[in-house]
From TrEMBL:
<dbReference type="InterPro" id="IPR050346">
    <property type="entry name" value="FMO-like"/>
</dbReference>
<dbReference type="Pfam" id="PF00743">
    <property type="entry name" value="FMO-like"/>
</dbReference>
<comment type="similarity">
    <text>Belongs to the FMO family.</text>
</comment>
<dbReference type="InterPro" id="IPR020946">
    <property type="entry name" value="Flavin_mOase-like"/>
</dbReference>
<dbReference type="GO" id="GO:0050660">
    <property type="term" value="F:flavin adenine dinucleotide binding"/>
</dbReference>
<keyword id="KW-0274">FAD</keyword>
<keyword id="KW-0521">NADP</keyword>
<dbReference type="GO" id="GO:0004499">
    <property type="term" value="F:N,N-dimethylaniline monooxygenase activity"/>
</dbReference>
<dbReference type="InterPro" id="IPR036188">
    <property type="entry name" value="FAD/NAD-bd_sf"/>
</dbReference>
<protein>
    <recommendedName>
        <fullName>Flavin-containing monooxygenase</fullName>
        <ecNumber>1.-.-.-</ecNumber>
    </recommendedName>
</protein>
<keyword id="KW-0560">Oxidoreductase</keyword>
<dbReference type="GO" id="GO:0050661">
    <property type="term" value="F:NADP binding"/>
</dbReference>
<dbReference type="InterPro" id="IPR000960">
    <property type="entry name" value="Flavin_mOase"/>
</dbReference>
<keyword id="KW-0503">Monooxygenase</keyword>
<keyword id="KW-0285">Flavoprotein</keyword>
Length: 448
């Protein structure tokens, strides 16, 4: 473990959420000498990796009053990144006693996060079963403190406290986005979102359409194909004439997007195919959602752009006293969370300087202008893909620590190629043995 740095200033910081982001935030903030309270509404650490059979009563998760089930993980889920690549940089995700596979099941990821929490004694600062209900500026003006209102154990204990800073780590896979489908209000079948998918058995003998091109649509379609009569996947980005039977399956087809649905239960695709369908499952991703946060308009969510945020972390108007971890997507999440956390911790202590408010706003405007010039829609503002490595390296430079390891970048890229080419087998067959060796050499610094 790296030695603790002597802080320039120590602050009292509230972290919202004890998933992969909140855990590493707590560790980095404490390393830097801040005092931390983590609020977690569930009974344990791990966030989305805590698998549960339960699903929400509203299968589309649109009812704002519904009881929220946090996890979006389904029973057969295995990681879509190899474990070497996926873990925090200085706490490698090596095979321990459980699932030894390179792309392990969700339970192995949960066990890893539990071990991380134990290793760094993070549970001692977590308030479990405590939901944050409201976060708002406590005072007017610059450097304002934050009022955090929370309720513990079904509202039996209410707290109203003041913190110097708040770090938001509430996760972004809870509030579903839905596809717009012409005719859906009179279509008689069942609709659901992948957030509420757990097991394939209920789809036995059914005709199911999944909407989406993401990892979930690819995995869930194959999971269901073993039980359903027919599975059809409709992708918005597929060319209009797409109609491809998936190799290795007798009942799985890829289509272009749905054109319309009808009262007789039929679904018509842009490719002209028409079928009678029992279930439409939206595998269409999620919306950023901060129901507890009041910033007087300083931070808004507009078509899934959270902004303005300097480097996807600090709203200039409220920096550094409010920050967000985990906004970027299409990334390797844990190491990115780790670097964002180090940056926030260092900025709060005054060891790392932020630019002026005006310069941060200029940087954000220039990002927006670049996206617009490239014809990229707002909702892709936080999508990173390959750009994540430049972003990580920038954060690492700010923090004075090494950038992303070359093997990690290469492993991410080669896995992506394999995943697209061989969605059935990429988790069990690979050729990047040299990268695994390089990773284990690096890991020997941290494992004992
Ligand atoms: P979460 O894990 O969602 O944690 C947020 C926490 O905040 C939760 O514990 C929640 O209870 C708590 N919380 C929220 N609101 C409040 C509140 N108001 N008060 C108190 N507590 C609150 N990543 C990978 O690296 N590899 C993969 O293979 C992979 N596969 C995935 C598959 C699926 C289906 C999904 C949905 C995600 C996958 N991810 C994967 C991404 C995954 O989301 C990240 O790895 C990571 O777990 C996100 O961590 P987080 O802390 O940001 O959010």
């Amino acid at each position: 473990m790296a030695p603790s740095l002597s802080p320039i200033r120590s602050h009292h910081v509230a972290v919202i959420g004890a998933g992969a982001a909140g855990l590493v935030a707590a560790r980095e903030l404490r390393r830097e000498g801040h005092s931390v309270v983590v609020f977690e509404r569930q009974k344990q650490v791990g966030g989305t990796w805590i698998y549960t059979d339960h699903v929400e009563p509203d299968p589309l998760s649109v009812d704002p009053t519904r009881p929220v089930v946090h996890s979006s993980v389904y029973a057969t889920l295995r990681t879509n990144l190899p474990r070497e690549c996926m873990g925090y940089r200085d706490f490698p995700f090596v095979a321990r006693s459980g699932d030894q596979r390179r792309f392990p099941s969700h339970g192995e990821v949960l066990a890893y996060l539990q071990e991380f929490a134990k290793e760094f004694a993070i549970e001692e600062v977590i308030r479990f079963e405590t939901a944050v209900e409201r976060v708002a500026p406590a005072t007017e003006g610059e450097n304002g403190k934050w009022r955090v209102e929370s309720t513990e154990k079904e509202k039996r204990v209410r707290r109203d406290e003041v913190y110097d800073a708040v770090v938001v780590c509430n996760g972004h896979y809870i509030e579903p986005r839905l596809a717009e489908i012409p005719g859906i209000s009179s279509w008689p079948g069942k609709e659901m979102h992948s957030h509420n998918y757990r097991i394939p058995e209920p789809f036995k003998d059914q005709v199911v359409v999944l909407i989406g091109n993401s990892a979930s649509a690819i995995d869930i379609s194959r999971d269901i194909a073993g039980h359903a009569k027919e599975v059809h996947v409709a992708g918005r980005s597929n060319p209009a004439d797409t109609f491809i039977k998936q190799p290795g399956y007798s009942n799985l087809w890829m289509h272009s997007m749905i054109e319309s649905v009808h009262e007789d239960g039929s679904v018509v695709f842009q490719n002209g195919q028409m079928i009678l369908v029992d279930v439409i499952m939206h595998c269409t991703g999620y919306k950023y959602h901060f129901p507890f946060l009041e910033t007087n308009g300083s931070v808004t969510v507009d078509d899934n752009r959270v902004g303005p945020l300097y480097k996807h972390v600090f709203p200039p108007e409220l920096a550094p006293w409010l920050s967000f971890i985990g906004i970027p997507w299409q990334v390797v999440p844990f190491p990115l969370f780790e670097l964002q956390s180090k940056w926030i911790a260092g900025v709060l202590s005054g060891r790392i300087m932020l630019p002026s408010k005006e310069d941060m706003m200029e940087d954000i405007k220039s990002l927006y202008a670049t996206l617009e010039a490239q014809g990229i829609q707002k909702r892709y503002t936080h999508r990173m893909g390959i750009a994540q490595f430049e972003y990580n390296d920038w954060l690492a430079t700010q923090c004075g620590c090494p950038g992303t390891e070359e093997w990690r970048k290469e492993m991410y890229l080669t896995t992506g190629v394999r995943k697209r080419a061989k969605p059935e087998t990429y988790r069990d067959e690979w050729e990047d043995h040299h990268l695994i060796s390089q990773a284990s050499q690096d890991f020997s610094l941290y494992t004992h």
